[in-house]
Amino acid sequence: MSNKxxxxxxxxxxxxxxxxxxxxxxxLACDPEAVVRELASILPHYIARVRELEAEVKRxxxxxxxxxxxxxxxxxVEVYVDGGLVDWVNMPPGVRVIVRDYDVEGEDEERxxxxxxxxxxxxxxxxxxxxxxxxxx
Length: 137
Known about the structure:
By secondary structure, the protein is an alpha+beta fold. The chain has helices at about 5-25, 30-60, 65-70; strands at about 80, 85-90, 95-100, 110-115, 120-125, 130-135. The strands form two sheets. Strands 3, 4, 5 and 6 form a four-stranded antiparallel sheet that branches. A two-stranded antiparallel sheet has the order 1-2.
């Protein structure tokens, strides 16, 4: 079940069920048989719903990731690493690859930049035309 409206409807139904249980607990002292009858009347729906969700989880676990996104439509970026360093990046036009190397020990201070999280790194940009730009230095 992937329809957003159906999920919202089910969540609302689950909230109503929880409210009913709370109210039933309050009514339990008054008429326990009525509470049991009410719970018995709605319990099959929730058992069926749990089975549906279990089946959906199983289906998603058995579905390979590539089946959910056709790889023929996705651009490919190839990153060649040699000796722990990026040696070459091959990509389609219109793509920019940013490589951040957080192993900054012993590097020239002017090459070190700070990322958005405040961590030091050496940042290199690779472009589809083969050009490379080093941040900081």
